[in-house]
Amino acid sequence: MFTHKSSFALFVLVLGLAAFTSGQALTPAEVKDPASRALQEKYYAQLKTVGAEVQGHVFPYSFYFSRVLDLELADQQKADQRSLRFDRYGGMTVVELTGNYFASYSSELVSRDQRVLRTFQDVMLPIIEIAMPELKDLPEVQGFAMEISHHVRGKAMGLKMERPENLVLVLPKAAAIRMANAKSETDRQAAILDSHFFLNGEPYTLYLSDSAAQEGALHPPPPPAQFPKESAKRSKSKKDGGAAVATTPDSVVAPAIAAPEATMPMRDTSPEALARIQADYQKIMELVVKETETQAHYVAYAPPAVVAFRKGAYIEFSVNTTLPAATTGSHYKLAALAFDEHISHLIRPVMTYFKGDLNFDGIAFSTTIHQAEPAVSAQGNQAVEFFFPVSALRCYEAFDCTGQQLIDAGSVLMNGERVSLDLQTAEAGAK
Prior knowledge:
It is a single chain. Residues 1-22, 223-235, 239-264 and 375-379 have low confidence and may be disordered. This protein has helices at residues 4-21, 34-42, 44-56, 73-78, 112-135, 173-180, 185-193, 210-218, 271-296, 331-351, 390-397, 403-409, 423-426, and strands at 63-65, 68-69, 85-89, 92-106, 143-156, 159-172, 196-199, 202-203, 236-237, 305-309, 312-323, 362-371, 382-389, 411-414, 417-419. The protein is built from 13 helices and 15 strands. By secondary structure, the chain is of the alpha+beta class. It has two domains: 20-240, no CATH class; 260-426, no CATH class.
């Protein structure tokens, strides 16, 4: 029989648990990007529902939402346990979470691949299966991303030590839904290969079984040029003193272009760092728009902005591309024509404003493809983003690289999805 005191204690406990499980999402005021903050406010209830359901799931070891990776358990229990938020990632609007999983694997008994697979199966997959039913019908959501840290025990110079391993999984929306609904390992493997996985900031191919690995050896997945290698190293880490971490862009580079990651310092892509770069180049960006408007057709309501993409800082110019009314073909053909007939003609004029050492990593051209009247496209207007590293732009500017080499050195996103664009193949029959 409950006493008054015990009833009150139970009430306090339940109230505390309710507050705890509903508090895994950041409040809208804590999201600095205006567009992401608006979505955080619009869908705050859905994020809280996802957070509560994930928190209520029983994992093999303790799992905590966290603003900071790589915490010790005692520190984690006292730390801020909210991380679910809207963000921009590789050109996509994603729901992202960060968390610490307190499994500690023996490096002598459990291989790297086994550790990654176990954390994926024990933590990442259940989270996807919990989150996607709640998020899949939100029209603005283009993907789902998570950063998860686990621990590895071993020895160094004869001394016992424990270190973290950080896993990042970024799924386009279609891949996330396919993974959540997968009925077989084959379906899940296909969804993984359409996603982007990183281990300690490096691209990693996750195989769910030995047979999948053997198949991958016989038929390797697409080379890195065909999918992003961005790592979600934006969360704070204990070992970095709480500072936001970012590494250099690792664009796949054509033979004539030097790989930027070999020479560039680590890039801070925190909102504060991007704002500083924006301030440094604001007058130049305004001058570019003013003096190249006739040729570029900039979007009036979307002024140039410094954005984070693939661990780098890019100046993004938003333009409109109008193709002839008679133009027909696939999305790829339209994107190729947009590059050849519009974007490629902007690169040299724009690059004349950016000489010497630059405090950013590349330039992006975001275009909406229209067709001239009276054409009415059954496909609707296409949104294409071209992200080019500075080294590739300068190579192209100097006529040392072709347009295809520039494309291969950068990244092309079509309606938010990363694509591989072969100009010659895409434009076959265009003329």
